[in-house]
Amino acid sequence: MRSAVWIVLIFSLTLGGCIRSQITLFPHAQPVIQQKQMHPQPTKAVLQTKVPSFYLVQQGDTLYTIGQRFGVPFQQLAEQNRIKEPYLLNVGQRIELASPIYKVRRGDTLYMIGQKFNVDYKGLAARNHIPYPFQIYVGQQIFLYGFAPEAKMIPIPVDQTVMSDPAIIKDKKQKTRDIEKNIQSESATPVADESGPLRFHWPVLGRMTQPFGQIDGKMSDGIDIESAEGTPVYAAERGTVVYVGQQVVGYGKMIIIRHENKLFTVYAHNQDNLVKVGDSLKRGALIAKVGRTGRGSTPHLHFEVRHSSTPVDPLDYLPKPHSTRKKGAG
Q: End-to-end distance of the chain based on CA atoms, in angstroms?
């Protein structure tokens, strides 16, 4: 009996030695990391408040834990990085975290965008909150893989009038290089109202400090124009005032003007609102003064252009900040 115990003990020690030698045989090997389960037991991940554009896979990562850490669904990571089941990853592999964004141009349809990027257009519609019949607008941002943040709800009245698209599309080469440029005084000077196609003008003299769209994981439905407190704010185009108030959280004192073609402009953080609901305005009419009401920490105008309730990039509807036009020119 005693000899049998010794045999079992010797066998156990021998087996343990074999296991140890297998573990240390390739101490610097980089393993293939695999995640096949829908909900594996992940290592505890800390949710990052600021999402970088990409992440390099580290030892022990899975697509699921990476998604947990940065608040991105792992299915989205798999789709936008073209990773198929069983979702194999390699240490050092680059994982794109931010969903690529496409800005709608004249002539685009959701179906054409889907074909261009090999993405199902119905999936694009669902992830971008676009209802049937999938109407999209110039300057609108389309998230190709991820879910688009929902636009801030503001009191845009329902308008059933069907009209043609506005003939106000501007140069697409206008990019964020203009953010640091000053807006010429003539761009914010009132001009005589004209009939014909809408031609938006800059509503205030100042410097653009915040562009439209998603920056560092945060979405802006418009642009911010820094200016001195009390600087006059003008109507960007002719229209009718449909909202004056400060009931929308964060916007402070705000004005909304309805224009033709189901377009609306929004002017927020005002010091004073100088118009009332129902006023019919010409382009360049004085409507407010720049302030810092709401969540405005410094004096500036938050300016939005919306097609119905959909935010679009104001830079696609405004003239270039450095214009050579003479004052008063239409």
A: 108
Residues contacting residue 234 through CB under 8 Å, at least 6 positions apart: 188, 190, 201, 203, 204, 284, 285, 286, 287
Mind listing the pLDDT tens digit for each residue in 176-195?
334 334 443 333 434 334 44
CATH code linked to domain 176-316: 2.70.70.10
Residue 139 and residue 316 in contact, taking contact as beta carbons nearer than 8 Å: yes
For residue 169, the Cα-to-chain-centroid distance in whole angstroms is: 20
Fold of 46-97: Membrane-bound Lytic Murein Transglycosylase D; Chain A (3.10.350)
pTM of the model: 0.61
Distance CA 325, CA 7 (A): 99
Q: Are 102 and 114 in contact (CB under 8 A)?
A: no
Look up tokens 């680059």; give the residue. 94
CATH 3.10.350.10 in the chain, residues?
Answer: 46-97, 101-143
Measured from the Cβ of residue 292, the count of other Cβ atoms closer than 10 Å reads 15
Is the confidence at residue 33, as pLDDT, over 60? no
Distance between CA atoms of residues 255 and 277, nearest Å: 9
Superfamily of domain 101-143: LysM domain (3.10.350.10)
What mean pLDDT is predicted for residues 115-122?
85
Distance CA 191, CA 307 (A): 24
Place of tokens 């019919």: 280
How far apart, in whole angstroms, are the C-alpha atoms of residue 271 and residue 102? 35
